[in-house]
Amino acid sequence: MILLAAIALLSLLFGAGDVGPGRAWQALSDFDAAAMHDSEAHFVIGELRLPRLGIGLVVGIALGIAGALLQAVTRNPLAEPGLLGVSAGSAFAVTLAILWGADAATLRISVAQLGALGGCLCVLAAARLQGIGNDPVRLILAGAILSGLLHSLSSLILLFDQYTADEIRFWVVGSLAGRDATDLMPLAPSLALAALLTVILARPLAALALGEHVAIGLGHHPRVVRLLVIVVVALLVGGATAIAGPVTFVGLVVPFAARALAGPDIRRTLWFCLPLGPIVVVSADIVSRLVVPPSELPLGVITALIGAPVLIAVVRRRRLPML
């Protein structure tokens, strides 16, 4: 939590514009006075960086928790919403919605969550197939095929519809730029529902990790638990994708780090995901602002650079003899 607070402060101090750390610190020290003496710094902190930080916190928590839940329900350490096609399904649904004229934030969020639900159901179906669900790498390959198909369909839509392309060109690679705090308001009910379901599902998931027969013996219903987890993942990933675009690898890196700190118990892992998710997302967002000033890199590019080595490390650990 201390590390998260420090990174949040850095997110307010550093950016790609003319307001450097010195001016930003002075504006934060006396925010009301800055409105009169340095209106630019006051505007940048209050209207740009602070809402961006809030969205980064929410997106980090949502993707971190979603990744941990998806890995628990598929029993696959490589399961990640971006790799398995969940985020791609959400992005494809939003692309279709914009093509058909939808632009309201609430509609976009609900459409993104429905698209994520479709991607989750495909993942769950693939995980139940003999030879795929038991092999983490094959499951990732199946997810890559689904993601590639959905991205190709989205690209075709962008080629033939200029308005849709203009609307989502920067959004589709994942970014926190240009977002407003009001974007979070329509997301609040679904996030509250997802949080409640996560608390309820933590104990059944811990039992399910010991095996289906053990979970049934303890009074849980594995099929119901899996379906509810899929609903939670769809709510979290769909909401995060709607406001920040399809940000990949966060759902892989965060649970990986959380398990390294907390051990295999899913309940402890979920607690550690709460601060680790925002730490990863906000840190990547800071880097995206600073590497190519005065422009910015998309957030999805930075998270991919962070997550790719983790993916390779997990694959080598699981299948070293075959590599």
TrEMBL record:
Pfam families: FecCD. The keyword Cell membrane applies. CDD domains: TM_ABC_iron-siderophores_like (cd06550). It is a multi-pass membrane protein. The chain crosses the membrane at residues 50-70, 82-101, 107-127, 139-160, 191-211, 223-240, 269-291, 297-315. SUPFAM superfamilies: ABC transporter involved in vitamin B12 uptake, BtuC. It is found in: Cell membrane. Belongs to the binding-protein-dependent transport system permease family. FecCD subfamily. This is FecCD family ABC transporter permease. The lineage of its organism: Bacteria, Pseudomonadati, Pseudomonadota, Gammaproteobacteria, Oceanospirillales.
